[in-house]
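Aim 2, interim progress: modelling of the L-homoserine-bound target.
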Amino acid sequence: MMTEVRVGIIGFGTVGAGVVDCLLRNGDLIGERTGLRPVLARVADLDITSDRGVAVPSGVLTQDAVGLIEDPSVDVVVELIGGTGVAKDFILRALAAGKPVVTANKALLAMHGEEIFSAAERSSADVYYEASVGGGIPCIKAMREGLVGNRIREIVGILNGTCNYILTRMEREGADFEAVLAAAQAAGYAEADPGLDVDGIDTAHKATILASLAYGEWFGMEPLHIEGIRRVSLQDIHYASELGYRIKLLAVIKERDGGVQMRVQPTLIPMSSLLGHVGGVFNAVWVRGDTAGGTMYYGRGAGRDATASAVVADIVDVSLNLKFGSHRRVAAFRPHQGYDRVVPMSDVRTRYYIRLQALDQPGVMALVSGILGRHGISIASVTQKEVNQPSVPMVILTHQAREAAIQSALQEMGRIDEIVEPPAMFRIEDLD
Ligand code: HSE
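Predicted structure of the complex, ligand included:
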């Protein structure tokens, strides 16, 4: 027998409008598939007059978010206002009222996930957050349910559509960073503060959510090592490409040395790898489990409809949980046996790309290789460009080395007169 679930949405911005559109368009289809038809009960926003391009049924729009939460006819609360202020109050209020919550709010979960999931546990209400990571890609559900039988060995993700769009256009067109960022903003991919995208913060929010899901501990933001893409130059994109690599902003989460590595960095990855083919606004998450081996999830990481698709999937999941009881399902987050130790960045071992601008004179290569050798860093390849200038670019790829050793070697190189610019350095993930 078909029953209805009444949905209240707080936040009628880009994603909110996408969710309204999807529910109005596909509500009946969802009802046929699941036996539960989602009905738009209330949509709350301070601005209820601007045209969002969707025809909200009359009487549904309201400015009263608290009234929406407390309305006994609203079964499910969807938080789409973002940020870590009132959004948190609304979610806690809905949970206190025993109502399941669906949110796309990655910043809030990254910073206050522990508090929110404790509140959910207390009131036995669900908090689902598929749209917080990877836009329309159902990667949270895949990890939570599809890989429930796995110990997660590593997660490597391209998680920010704006950065991937910028790096892709820089590589393909030699485009200017600022101009491409403006295009990403115009297309609605970027955060209200695009610094959150290009400085790696948005990726870090998503990375800590994935790490928490995989390793049973809300890590928060503090243990993450975060670098953004502002320092990626066309020159490095070009040299990386000559060597068969692409530069991508990666979230790297790995079980290593009895702990978890958690880092967000512009990174060289092989062009021939699956992740190397992920271009434009697309995101992808590669997850290796001890039982399944490698799996990859790919799709649109940002944008109105992609994100709405994930929100609607969560609405359906929490509605089914309401109807049948969440004991039937794998909880959205539950602490479990995993790792709580985060490996300090200085102890991470990986391969490195180093670019130096060095004087073109005898003995300079020996100086550089001497510094690397003294720090126990083994060179995998060296390329020096022949240009008719007093100083020349020198590109070095290393074998596996410890981050602390690389940092000391770079500092030493930065002090010698023959190296005329601060060295550029990127990590390499060979993804094997
Ligand atoms: N600003 C984000 C991005 C939106 O570019 O990926 C999706 O979280």
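DSSP finds 13 helices and 17 strands in the chain. The chain has a mean pLDDT of 95.
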